[in-house]
Amino acid sequence: MGSVADRLERLTNLVAVLLDTRRALTVEEIVERVPGYPEDRDSYRRQFERDKATLREIGVPISLEALYAFDQESGYRIHRSDYELPALDLAEDERVALHLAVTAVSLEGGEGRSALLKLGGLVGDPAAPLAALPSVPALPALFDAYRRRARASFPFRGEERRLDLYGILFRNGHWYAVGHDPDRDATRAFRADRIDGPVVLGPAGTFERPDGFDPAAAVRDDPWQFGDEQPVTAEVLVHPPQAGWVAADLGEEAVAERRDDGSVVLRMAVTNRDAFRAFVLGLLDHAEVLGPPMLRDEMVAFLKQLAARGVPGGDR
Amino acid sequence: MSPRPDAAARLRRLLTVIPWIVDHQGSALSEIAARFGMSVPELERDLELVPFCGLPPYSPDRLIDCEIVDGRVFLRFAEYFARPLRLTPSEGFALLAAGRGLLAVPGADPGGSLARALDKLAGVLGGADGMAVEWAPARFLEPLRQAAAAAERVEIDYYAFGRDALTTRRIDPHAVFAAAGQWYVDAWCHRAGDERLFRVDRVRDVRPTGEHFEAARPATAAAPTSLFHPGADDLRVTLCLAPEAGWVVETYPTESVEVEPDGRLRVVLVASERPWLERLLLRLGPAGEVVAPDEARAAGPSAAKRLLARYVGVSPPCP
Known about the structure:
A: alpha+beta, Arc Repressor Mutant, subunit A, 4 domains, disordered C terminus, B: alpha+beta, five-stranded antiparallel β-sheet, 10 helices, about 25% strand, elongated, disordered N terminus
């Protein structure tokens, strides 16, 4: 008793019995059918609890349900429809492609390999590592909420938030959960690594994803547009050689003027002035806010305040 | 030691292997083992157990029948294990992230076998189009990948962000990879005489040299897990940060973080290049200041004065 082989045998039989049964089985019925449990009631119950936890840990969906209609007593079974991976009809070249993907793009601590095994094993050669994606504890649950169309609730910066997930986005090195926030009745994106507690899922299938929803298009890319402030169109002068690279990053539509000395004037729609200021200051001596006067004044005031620090008697 | 994790891992494997064998009767032990990433003895050890598994009353017709003939495996009476377990959320997420991630690499075929596979998995994964993976745009990714693949020495113009300076150097690119959303090229830098990691988006030009280098490492070298390796001599600064400047700790590698009684943070980080430190301090403004060492205390205010001169020179459009 107690060896890994014994336990593996008992667990395998347990899965078989729970899959095969037509109705839920009480713990007593299970212990009677599956060899290897101790005689004593407390001991076999404890043992069964441990086995159940192990099965759930590897993803075996055990349901607890009433034995008969209106009956108080409940038992366990595994529904085949919950347990079984649907038939997928993957071609061999598609399995090869998935194997390449999982080896080329590795998710930190990820279980892509064990997914491949369930889909029919590792086919073809692994790829050289090409990219790494960070992992965040909230991601599997967020993904499950997305997949099952179940409303997700989670603590975010000290506040309990709810979200109907339409998609998941990886951008600028961070994962975002994107969807409809029922409390604010608006599209919202949450950085997954800032979710600081468990993600709780409501019932499945409670919302519809809009057709063709693209999480990348739903989240504004430029940080200075990531806010709800009164929109302002800023003009920023950028000197060469930075001018060319910044213009290439922001796109030609942002270029208001190209000057003979190689500098450019950018026109930027700003709804987050802190992020806008950070962008301009990040260019150090190579950029300057030209207008509107209000934004230029704000920049001057900000720099003056900072410049006065460390000066004896200066503004601290 | 508790035997539990091992039993769980082996059960997981068994519940995956049995359905495949049921579906592919007579497959060779070696093929099954390779396919499921295990050794033949491991597989044999798991299969030895199978004939003891089944349903009550565990009579021969109710137990799984496992026969190995000339190294080929046959399984009967295992109908309840006809299909593998569905994917867990972690597995589904990892698979979709890898698939979407690879399709987002420039040059990937949007209609190829990977895209087709993800389409077929849509029912299992909740629709592949709901996940988007974006790698930072990097204009010179393709030429650098080609140079790495062909072991070609190239000359690059590189913007050294920390020093705010454009440099030109010859490099032997070993590998190109993405981490934390950015593309990097891991190369031998002839100017530095050392291995260097370059951010591809800061490469401003790539020119062939016509020379080749000896590929020192196999192509499967793993991407470094940490991108930042400060030297012992690099300047450490101690910053005092207001609570709202906590993003600094989330964004940059720190050597120590202490929370003061008033909620302010005392953070030590490596700031070997002055422009890098200036950017950080300018961005922080009143929310942060250098407290040590003494020679770095004025970095923020003096950078602010320098930038301010720009605004004073031009006649300001304000009254």
